[in-house]
Amino acid sequence: MTDFDRLLRLLAGAEIRFLIVGGIAATVHGGTQLTEDLDIVYDRRPDNLERLAEALMPIHPYLRGAPPGLPFRWDAETLARGLNFTLTTDLGWLDLLGEIAGGGTYPSLLPESVAIEIFGTPCRFLTLQRLIRAKRDAGRPKDLQAIAELESLLDGDAE
After folding, report:
1. C-alpha–C-alpha distance, residues 129 and 60, integer Å
2. How many other C-beta atoms can be found within 10 angstroms of the C-beta atom of residue 21?
3. What's the CA gap between 35 and 55, in Å, rounded?
4. DSSP-assigned letters across all residues of 121-148
5. I need a labelling partner for 95 at 20 to 30 A (CA). Which of 24, 58, 89, 129 fits?
6. What's the number of CA atoms in the CB half-sphere (13 Å) around residue 98?
7. Three-state DSSP class for 57?
8. What are the C-alpha distances in Å from 76 to residues 39, 45, 72, 95?
9. Longest alpha-carbon distance in the chain
């Protein structure tokens, strides 16, 4: 079980620049589907990669689904050479996304985000409109299933 509270406090406390996307963003906007992981789009500037690598080190990030014992070096260089990482940690599952479907990177998504406090921690989330677009762009069956509910929430906001 992912400890969303502790993961978010860890990221925010280390002053990581990130946006919450995926299931937790949907839930914050009123969605009802459960999620097992925290999906974030992170800023890929070198200073942020350094802080992100350092902050996660104590919770032992490892590639989710990789065989145990597979050599995996966790540092800013690994983050810089990769883009998207699906991780298991001592606090649960964390997906680090350098970019989401449709070309969304941290700098391009920041204007389409809103500040919301969750578990007492101020965070940035994709707006409901942008989250719907991201799910449509991803095109995965679970994302397509969520769109109808999210659109109904959007329609409810207009009333």
Report:
1. 34
2. 25
3. 23
4. EEEEEE-HHHHHHHHHHH--HHHHHHHH
5. 129
6. 14
7. helix
8. 19, 10, 13, 16
9. 54
Do 97 and 42 touch, CB atoms closer than 8 A? yes
Residues with Cβ within 8 Å of residue 2, at least 6 apart in sequence: 36, 37, 38, 91, 92, 93, 94
pTM: 0.90
Confidence band (pLDDT; 50, 70, 90) for 159? very low
Q: Quick check: 2 and 10 in contact, CB under 8 A?
A: no
Q: Going by DSSP bridges, is the β-strand pair 62-63/84-89 parallel, antiparallel, or unpaired?
A: antiparallel
Query: Helix, strand, or coil here: 86?
Result: strand
pLDDT at 93 over 50: yes
pLDDT tens profile 128-158: 999 988 888 887 777 767 787 888 887 765 4
Backbone angles phi, psi at 105, to 5 degrees: -110, 170
- Do the beta carbons of residue 32 and residue 149 sit within 8 Å? yes
**What torsion do the CA atoms of 127, 104, 95, 144 make, to the nearest 10 degrees?**
70
